[in-house]
Every structure is written in structure tokens, then in C-alpha cells.
Automatic annotation (TrEMBL), chain A:
UniProt-recorded name of the protein: Succinate--CoA ligase [ADP-forming] subunit alpha
Residue ranges occupied by any CoA-binding domain in the UniProt entry: 4-100
One of the protein's GO biological processes: tricarboxylic acid cycle
One Pfam match: Ligase_CoA
Record keywords, A-Z: Ligase, Nucleotide-binding, Tricarboxylic acid cycle
GO cellular component: succinate-CoA ligase complex (ADP-forming)
Ligand binding (CoA): T17, G18, R19, D20, K43, I96, T97, E98
Species whose genome carries this gene: Eiseniibacteriota bacterium
Top-level enzyme category: ligase
Family per similarity comment: Belongs to the succinate/malate CoA ligase alpha subunit family.
TrEMBL record, chain B:
Source organism (scientific name): Eiseniibacteriota bacterium
Protein role: Succinyl-CoA synthetase functions in the citric acid cycle (TCA), coupling the hydrolysis of succinyl-CoA to the synthesis of either ATP or GTP and thus represents the only step of substrate-level phosphorylation in the TCA. The beta subunit provides nucleotide specificity of the enzyme and binds the substrate succinate, while the binding sites for coenzyme A and phosphate are found in the alpha subunit.
UniProt binding sites for ATP: K46, G53, R54, G55, L95, E100
Molecular functions (GO terms): ATP binding; magnesium ion binding; succinate-CoA ligase (ADP-forming) activity
GO biological process: succinyl-CoA metabolic process; tricarboxylic acid cycle
Pathway(s) the chain acts in: Carbohydrate metabolism; tricarboxylic acid cycle; succinate from succinyl-CoA (ligase route): step 1/1
Protein name (record): Succinate--CoA ligase [ADP-forming] subunit beta
The reaction(s) this protein catalyses: succinate + ATP + CoA = succinyl-CoA + ADP + phosphate; GTP + succinate + CoA = succinyl-CoA + GDP + phosphate
GO cellular component, one term: cytosol
Transmembrane portions of the chain: none
Subunit structure: Heterotetramer of two alpha and two beta subunits.
Gene3D superfamilies xrefs: ATP-grasp fold, A domain, ATP-grasp fold, B domain, Succinyl-CoA synthetase domains
EC identifiers of the protein: 6.2.1.5
């Protein structure tokens, strides 16, 4: 088992002919992901990497039965692309695009919720169930199948943690980047709920960062609802207040959202928090009783 | 991006939010004197700088005469507030105040909607009110696509002002501020204080607007308000190149791909006893020119004693970073020690390129790399 994606996942790529879309479609296909269709308006009827291209997501879904969409379209068109996918009938939309205005995201969230469509991202690296499927831009080769779920607001920091786990001989069930924007479709608590239900996942690594209060929210969830051990890490201990640290959501404002505050909330909920990234492997081994 | 008070007031006026009339911005003490003379009465001289606590830092002064306004402006224009130089002052009429309110709109991430907040306790730090007297802060979420309904604005205003006539005026400001927030793609819009004059008029005495950087492409008029003084030359060069660079005070220059890893790298530098000189995210794309620019920016900082590259290749290819590194070293002639840790996509090719360069210190893990750079920075200090 794994969560959200597995061997049965059939992917349609929106923005498949763009530079990033094309490159990562090939990488997904090479990893073994079942990429069934691509969409670029005006290029319907062509193909790329032996994958048929359609003008509309609805045509692609009808022709191929795609159940998951991944979005590489430029920011001004990305929120619309998410809605197009949702209305075409896919159940999971993964928005890789970075730089979507918040005001574009706000109105589409209730609509997605009403339709029961899950959005991952935007501004995220996607997700991978090692050995089964990857949707997004994560480097497949550093992962290995196993019992640990990894969820993070960051991309490369997640790779760093996964790399360590794999080098320590610990595999992963599903690794998810939820994205660095202020408004995101899937939050820490949503993934924790799924990990808790997934029989293959035995422990979870949660990687947070400064800004917002998603980590505090997750800490409450872990304390009240989770039986599986969670190991945490918070990035941005040395970040100066008021500066946006790369991610649109990574900012300490009005003295709120600091790493110390988040670490304290996690620890109060019984979560072991790694002080430095290299401690994560050891803490997970301990949690798994290895 | 943040804009100054005088710019935010221009935006307010455009959207029909009343501000004290006759205020103008001055870059010199003589200009401030001329504006004060035109206003003809007591004025307030306010530093235009992107930081809170202007009053406490001596950046806001009353002046009874034009000559006094000149004097105050002279002093304020020499200030640095939280490290930022004051280059402009706003000279505006000093008004009699019957009451001060707080009115602000911020994004509530958890709800996924903007929240309007109003309090009868204005003119003080609102975080303080929220902490010590939460019942004095009234909150309402609204959907910016649907807009705030007039009756919602009236209900909210009534919570902060018992006099129905005055509350009606506040309600109109709330409505207009909600419209402004949505139409300029703000991440924060704040009036603190919103004042009632002895005549019962409502005016925005202060104004603060922060904008969503991701939406600036559709607001060229607001982009044009960017104050070049609020970012260093290095920060501007970095932004033009698509790098995220934030200058800090330490001695270890950091070049990292990805925001989370960049933060974690800074934290680790601190953990092992060093001090990061910057936050620098070269982003996801594989462009050697970005790396060259990164090295140039970092080596311009005289505090930097050693440089750390921490690259986890995903979309970023290690060979591209290596090529940029070799080229950057050549172009800048940098003599500082450089510790480099490369993992991931095209790692082997990257290492081969670096093997030919001299003066580089390779490292296997993030811990090793950081320990080594801290040691080298200490030795060079």
C-alpha cells in the first residue's frame, strides 16, 4: 500500500510540451509512472515521448481514463488549469507551478472541495510512492520502497531527508511535497490522516518551516488522532523576521511563525524533533524499533 | 513587495478611502519646509521606510511651523531605522483626533480567505491587543471574488463604534479597503490608526499595503512603486537573475538550491558555530550563469571569509552547477576557500568538472560540508 498514488495511477500532464513539462514527463515515464496523456491547447493530435496530446483535459480523460493530473503550465494560467482538470473528472490534481497569485487560488478552493477533488500544491515537487509511481519532479533514484511516510513544505530539503533514510536502509511508503505557498490544497493534517490509515506506513517524517501555523495544527492532530510515531524537523531557525525566505509562505510576520514556536508545539505533542537534518535517520530508526 | 505609506495613501485615494488632505512626500529638508508652508499650520513629518516602530525610532515628529518642519525633516532624513536609510519623509497636516481605531486585512492561511480585523483600540501594536485583549479585536472572513457585502461592513463597524452615524462612515471605509485588498492583490492592507476627527470625519492617518509578489505582473503601476533603496544592489541583481538572495551579517556565504534546504543549511552553519552571510536559493533551473552571479554577489560582501555550496540535484543538474562554479571562480578571481557538496542528478559529471579546479574543498555530507566551511571561515578571520 501507499497513499494517493500507486500502480493504478493514470496521469495526464497539463503543459506537456513546455520545457519543464516535457522533461519531467520523460522522467516520470522512465520511473515507471503510467503517463497516459498530455494536454497543450492547440497541439491536440500530436504526441510527445509516445504520449498522445489533447487540446482539452476532458478529451484526454475521456480517451484514456486518466485519474490524476499534473500541472506544469505557467502561473497566470495555472489556477484555471486546476479547475479544468477537476471538472474533467480526475480525483487528484498535482500543481507543480510556482508563482500563482494567491488571489487566483482563493476562489477555486471551495469549488474543489465541493467536487471532492484533492489538490496537491501549488508550488510543490509532487509525490512518489517508491517502486510504483511518481507524479511531479522528485528525483526517483534516491527513493526506496519501505515503511516511512515523508511529508514536507519543501522540495530539496525533502530529497536530503529521503537520501539519508535510504542510505540508512530505511525505505518510504509515499513521499509528499505539499508546497511552499500560503494557500495549498493538501495540508500536513490531510496527509497525516492518510498515513495513519495506510497499513504499510509505520512512521512519518514531517518537515516544516517558518511561517503560518500548519505545523502547530499538525501537532494537535498528532496528539489527538495519531497512533503512529512522527519525527519532525523545522527549517528556518536562523531566518530573520519579515523576510520572505524563498517560499511565498516562509515568512515570520508580527513575530509569529518562528521555528522555535513550531518546535515547541511539536515537542509538546510528543513529536521527536531533529535539531539538525542528520538526526532524522536515527530518530526514525528508534521510532521503528530498529 | 512592500510599498511606502505615502504610496499606500495614493492607492487608498484612488479607491475612495479618505486620507488627510494636502500631504506630500519630500526628499530634502527644503522640500519638506515648502510643503509645510503650503499646508500652513502644524504638520507631522513621517519617515518613509519599510519597517515598523518608526515612532519609537524618532522617525515621526510634529512641527508647528514650516521652519520647524525643515529642522525635523533634516534630522529624520539622517536616520537609519532597523538598518534602512530614510530617504523620504511624508509631510502631512497634524490633525486633532477624537478617537483611534485599528482596521486591517490579512490572509488567513488556515481558512484560505482574507480576514478583516477591526478594533476600537487603535494606534497601538495590534499584536499586543490580540494577545492581551483578544475580545477587543473583531474579525470577519470574506471571499474576495464575491466581495464584502455592505451589511457585513456595517455589522463589523458597529462592533468598534457605538455612534451609528460615525459607524456608517467606518463601514464605507471597511468596504473600500476590502475592494482595494482584492483589486491590488494585497497580502496585507492596514490602517493603524484609522481616526475620527472632532467633527466626526473618518480618515486613514496611516497606511500600509504589502503586495503579493506573484501577482505583480498584472500591476505594472504598483511594480513601479518599488523603492530601489529597500533592497541592496546585490539583492536587485539577484532578483533580476531569478535568484532569491537575502543578505545577513555572518561570514559564510551560502549557495543552495531550494528554499527549504537553503534555510536548513543556514541553520546548520549556526548549529556548528558559524554565521551565515546570506540566504541564497539558486532555484530549480540548471543555468550556470545563475551560479556565476551567485558567486559574484557573495564575493562582493567583504564579511565573507568562506563559501559553501550545498546542492541537491533534482531538476538542478550538478554538472551545470559545477560549470557555473568553475566559470564564476575564473571571472571573479575569488581567493576565498570554497567547500562544495554535490549530490543527485549528474553528480559524477559535476565532480569530474570540479576535479580540474583548484582551491575547492569537496565534502560528502551536509554535516561534513558545514563543519569544514565553519573551520575555514574561522581560520581566515
Amino acid at each position: 500500500m501507499s497513499i494517493l498514488i500507486d500502480e493504478k495511477t493514470k496521469v495526464v500532464v497539463q503543459g506537456i510540451t513546455g520545457r519543464d513539462g516535457s522533461f519531467h514527463t520523460k522522467a516520470m515515464k522512465d520511473y515507471g509512472t503510467n503517463v497516459v496523456a498530455g494536454v497543450t491547447p492547440g497541439k491536440g493530435g500530436q504526441s510527445i515521448h509516445d504520449i498522445p496530446i489533447y487540446d482539452l483535459v476532458s478529451e484526454a480523460v475521456e480517451a484514456t481514463g486518466a485519474n490524476t493530473a499534473v500541472i506544469y503550465v505557467p502561473p497566470p494560467f495555472a489556477a484555471d488549469a486546476v479547475l479544468e482538470a477537476a471538472h474533467a473528472g480526475v480525483k487528484l490534481v498535482v500543481a507543480i507551478t510556482e508563482g500563482i497569485p494567491v488571489m487566483d487560488m482563493i476562489p477555486i478552493m471551495p469549488e474543489l472541495k465541493e467536487m471532492g477533488v484533492r489538490l496537491l500544491g501549488p508550488n510543490c515537487p509532487g509525490l512518489i510512492s517508491p517502486g510504483k509511481s511518481k507524479v511531479g519532479i522528485l528525483p526517483g533514484e534516491i527513493h526506496k520502497p519501505g515503511p516511512v511516510g515523508v511529508v514536507s513544505r519543501s522540495g530539496t530539503l525533502t530529497y536530503e531527508m529521503v537520501y539519508q533514510l535510504t542510505r540508512n536502509g530505511i525505505g518510504q511508503s509515499t513521499c509528499i511535497g505539499i508546497g511552499g505557498d500560503p494557500i495549498i490544497g493538501t495540508r500536513f493534517i490531510d496527509t497525516l490522516e492518510l498515513y495513519e490509515k495506510d497499513p504499510e506506513t509505520k512512521a512519518v517524517v514531517m518537515i516544516g518551516e517558518i511561517g503560518g501555523n500548519a505545523e502547530e495544527e499538525a501537532a494537535r492532530f498528532v496528539q489527538e488522532k495519531m497512533t503512529k510515531p512522527v519525527v519532525g524537523f523545522i527549517a528556518g531557525r536562523t531566518a530573520p523576521p519579515g523576510k520572505r525566505m524563498g517560499h511565498a509562505g516562509a515568512i515570520i510576520s508580527g513575530g509569529k511563525g518562528t521555528a522555535d514556536e513550531k518546535t515547541a508545539a511539536l515537542e509538546a505533542a510528543g513529536i521527536k524533533v531533529a535539531r539538525i537534518p542528520s538526526e532524522v535517520g536515527g530518530l526514525i530508526k528508534e521510532a521503528l524499533g530498529l | 513587495m512592500n510599498i511606502h505609506e505615502y504610496q499606500a495613501k495614493q492607492v487608498f485615494l484612488k479607491h475612495g478611502i479618505p486620507v488627510p488632505p494636502g500631504g506630500e512626500v519630500a526628499g530634502t529638508a527644503a522640500e519638506a519646509e515648502a510643503i509645510a508652508a503650503k499646508i500652513g499650520g502644524p504638520v507631522v513629518v513621517k519617515a518613509q521606510v519599510h519597517s515598523g516602530g518608526r515612532g519609537k525610532a524618532g522617525g515621526v515628529k510634529l512641527a508647528k511651523t514650516a521652519a520647524e518642519a525643515k529642522e525635523k525633516a533634516e534630522a529624520i532624513l539622517q536616520l537609519h531605522i532597523q538598518g534602512l536609510p530614510v530617504r523620504k519623509v511624508l509631510v502631512a497636516p497634524a490633525l486633532d483626533i477624537a478617537h483611534e481605531y485599528y482596521l486591517g486585512i490579512v490572509l488567513d492561511r488556515q481558512m484560505g480567505l482574507p480576514a478583516i480585523m477591526i478594533s476600537r483600540e487603535g494606534g497601538v501594536e495590534i499584536e499586543e491587543v490580540a494577545r492581551t485583549k483578544p475580545e477587543a479585536l473583531h474579525k470577519l472572513h470574506f471571499d474576495p471574488a464575491r466581495g464584502l457585502r455592505p451589511y457585513e461592513a456595517r455589522q463589523l463597524a458597529a462592533k468598534a463604534e457605538p455612534d451609528g452615524k460615525v459607524a456608517g462612515k467606518i463601514a464605507r471605509v471597511i468596504e473600500k479597503l476590502a475592494k482595494t485588498y482584492a483589486s491590488v492583490d494585497a497580502s496585507l492592507a492596514e490602517i493603524n490608526p484609522l481616526i475620527q476627527t472632532p467633527d466626526g470625519d473618518i480618515l486613514a492617518l496611516d497606511a500600509k499595503i504589502n503586495l503579493d509578489d506573484n501577482a505583480l505582473y498584472r500591476h505594472p503601476d504598483l511594480e513601479a512603486m518599488r523603492d530601489p533603496d529597500t533592497e541592496t544592489d546585490s539583492e536587485r541583481v539577484a532578483r533580476d537573475m531569478g535568484l532569491t538572495f537575502i543578505k545577513l551579517d555572518g561570514s559564510i556565504g551560502c549557495v543552495v538550491n531550494g528554499a527549504g534546504l537553503a534555510m536548513a543549511t543556514m541553520d546548520l552553519v549556526k548549529h556548528f558555530g558559524g554565521d551565515p552571510a546570506n540566504f541564497l536559493d539558486i532555484g530549480g533551473s540548471s543555468n550556470p550563469d545563475k551560479v556565476v552571479t551567485a558567486i559574484r554577489i557573495i564575493t562582493e560582501d567583504p564579511n565573507v571569509k568562506a563559501i559553501l555550496f550545498n546542492i541537491f540535484g533534482g531538476i538542478t543538474r550538478c554538472d551545470d552547477v559545477a560549470r557555473g562554479l568553475v566559470e564564476g571562480v575564473k571571472q571573479t578571481g575569488v581567493k576565498l576557500p570554497i567547500v562544495i557538496r554535490l549530490v543527485g542528478t549528474n553528480e559524477k559529471e559535476g565532480r569530474e568538472i570540479l576535479a580540474s579546479a583548484s582551491g575547492l574543498h569537496p565534502a560528502e555530507t551536509m554535516d561534513d560540508a558545514v563543519k569544514k566551511v565553519v573551520e575555514l571561515a574561522g581560520a581566515g578571520a
